[in-house]
Amino acid sequence: MQFTQKELTLYGQPLDPNYGGGLSCCYDGTQCKVKNGIESVERHLYLKYTVKWVDWSDTILPVKIFILDVTDTWQNTGIHDCLVEYDVEQSTTGISTNDYTSTRRSSVRFPISGDVVYAVGHQHRGGLGSALYRKDGREICLSKPIYGMGDEVGNEAGYVVGMSTCYPKPSSMKIVKGETLTMEFNYSSEKSHTGVMGHFYILVSESSMDSNYLVGW
Question: Is the Cβ–Cβ distance between 198 and 130 less than 8 Å?
Fold first, then answer.
């Protein structure tokens, strides 16, 4: 596999020639490694989506959105510096141990108090599952990848097409400001994976939840 000069350019800076693929392949005008002899063909792609909403009222309770990244360096440095993606190396001991699971963990001190009303993990192909839990080990959310089983759009076999979500009952999952939360992401290491992600998206209401409220964000 080889790069062309165009494929190496990201904001005018060359990518590492050994870069195997990931987020840096997604910027405008960039492209990562392809098999020798394959020529790039320009295509026009379109995105279609549906937006739904409800009219605002006093029954809607606003929430704050937090994105937690397992590559965050805060635990070791005290400074939030998220790498966004990371690589999973192929296991060299999987055959002897019959275990091809690569686990990565990170902890973060939460900045506000409130009720968790929604949580979901984000993983790529090779993902086995993710978990978010408290310092005492109590689980906040277990989010597993959903793999496609067909060839139609949205159900591509072997690829992650969704993640299971968590909707805690109102006022059942409270977080205290300064509380340490730990996230854990598992990937298969039977073969290597480049540019994988380990993110948790959570929605938190700073007000006490009430069954008469709708959640809005």
Answer: yes
Residues belonging to the chain: 217
DSSP-assigned beta bridge partners for residue 91 = none
3-state secondary structure of 7: helix
Q: How far is CA 179 from CA 69, 78, 137, in A?
A: 17, 15, 12
3-state secondary structure 41-82: CCCCCCCCCCCCCCCCCCCEEECEEEEEECCCCHHHHCCCCC
Q: What is the pLDDT of residues 84-143, one digit of tens each?
A: 999 999 998 877 777 899 999 999 989 999 999 999 999 999 999 999 999 888 999 999
- Sign of torsion over alpha carbons 169, 124, 62, 110: positive
Residue 215 parent element (H or E): strand 214-216
Name the residue with tokens 């596999």: 1
Residue 137: Cβ-neighbour burial (10 angstroms; 0-12, 13-18, 19+): exposed
Question: Which residue(s) pair with 61 in the sheet?
Answer: 215
Q: How do the residues of the chain divide into helix, strand and coil, expressed in percent and rounded to 5?
A: 5, 40, 55
What values do phi and psi take at 74, rounded to 5? -55, -40
Give the pTM.
0.80
Distances (CA, A) of 20 to 8, 89, 106: 12, 12, 24
Question: Longest C-alpha distance within the chain, in Å?
Answer: 62
Nearest alpha carbon to residue 137 among 71, 186, 75, 181 = 181
Residue 191 near residue 39, CB atoms below 8 Å: no
